[in-house]
């Protein structure tokens, strides 16, 4: 590369990369910006506060916990992109997270709660209640709350309790009324019951709500739990624990039992964060808790307001039907073009490939595909991978029914799907009881691919139908995640799918595929080859173009190859919702690369990779982000779109994402994101809303 030689650019320079964890925090900041965005309806803004908190919980339970473990064992080696040691990362994470949490609560207290009050919903304190209201609340406490509470004393015989992860607790300092000496003070812990509604509603006139926090009610009447003692102080706190699982796959005779055992341990991992409610937190209790839990002071978050804003998920669910004007306008998923209701999906797919873009187009054809296969007497076998499914999954029901109907059903259930392990263990047991052949994947690899194969006999001939996608077989998340999927009956796709499942379930060498590229074997090398080819076309024709859409980009080899493409003159447009370790716009390194992130009412989840190839246009969908973990440690599938009409459809979707000037943010050369500027004469383009409009238009045209 002449340009690189002339400028002597060292593409491994840490200044050319964003740290993975700080990039994730930048993504969560974009989520928080949606709570700040006045264009969003009020209840939606509360929900974004909940999403921000939920994201942060998981970040601490996994990513921060992992870094803390590295520090504890004395690991000081810098990570291989931005060159930061674990300790440096933890310091930067703490500084940034404190800033974001302060902004989150400032938004709640100064903006959203006052707006909610105008809608006749008010959060009140026990101290604000009248005598009559206090009497009503006391009866409610005694009848509905007191019986559920369990005070846990701490003394020589009763050590500090193992508090549940993400639970809210009260630390109560007590004094024996018979012994006023300092050493007579006692400490007890009371867990706020998660089985009770967090918001206690006061009687109020119709159409208005006065709400009190459950922990405030308990604190006010806490003396009733400790007769004979004087309550000196009551402090509200919440802990977050290390929830990463250590699974010893090599020595596990039964992976399912091994995971069940690890799930039991997860609840009691080391504390990684302590949140305390201010004002009024007892300083002596804070010192006691930090010592007892072994939490560093930078991981203590003093919150001026109530803890755990994930409660606004349930608040949203309860209030949304009451105040429809405070939520996003409901959007209905449409059937894709040519997919008539009642028409057998096998007939349609045997005629042509069918492309779906969820949730603009309905997930129902995917459910219908598996359901029809379960009941079709000509279907001989169904094979499917499952990573995350819904709680009352129609997909699981169809698979169980298929087995009961005598079909050969093979299901690969990924037991190691983070935070879905418990659900998947249960599904695996249910499927086995129904007669399905359940497998758990391959040692040390998560099976993250999304694929279904249906084998059918017609006129004494075997035909194969394949469904491939970028998202999970989850009918609920398909309503709020943007994903793409493909039905095909093309013979070579069917052969590839058969070989893929046989490789996962049996003893056989890695097969050669016609269309599929599979991680951890070939996806990275295939993507790099595609970029190299685009560089060659750029040098020959000057029309190099790459568009890639994904959740996260962290793989250093691919980033370096994209830098190389940029230096060769290839125009690279990246739509990366979350983590992006690549920095665009650096002269001599990434000046031809643009990175944008779209955070809106739907969670952008589809993975699409487009290469111009001198106008021939090669387009791929994948279950994989360009992350090192996906390419090294997961079974993933990358597959091409071969139908020209569908290929153009996908290209149009990508171009629309690049035109978004409402929910899109653009990363600058310093790694900072800014809303994409819009000129006064430019049309307003919200890509998600425009895709719904287009889906509606197609449906109308078909009527």
Distance between the termini: 55 Å
Cα gyration radius (Å):
28 Å
Put simply, the count of helices is: 19
Q: What percentage of residues falls in helices of 4 or more residues?
A: 25-40%
Q: Tell me, rounded to a whole number, the average pLDDT.
A: 91
Q: How big a fraction of the residues is strand? A: 15-25%
The assigned structural class equals: alpha/beta
Largest sheet at a glance?
10 strands, mixed
**Shape assignment:** globular
Low-confidence stretches: 1-6, 248-253
Number of distinct beta strands: 27
Protein name: Polyphosphate kinase
GO molecular function: polyphosphate kinase activity
Domain Polyphosphate kinase N-terminal: 17-123
Binding site for Mg(2+): 388, 418
Provide key terms for this protein.
metal-binding; phosphoprotein; eight-stranded mixed beta sheet; polyphosphate kinase activity; transferase; alpha/beta; 703 residues; magnesium; ten-stranded mixed beta sheet; 27 strands
Could you give a quick summary of the protein structure above?
Residues 17-123 form the Polyphosphate kinase N-terminal domain. The chain is an alpha/beta fold and 703 residues long.
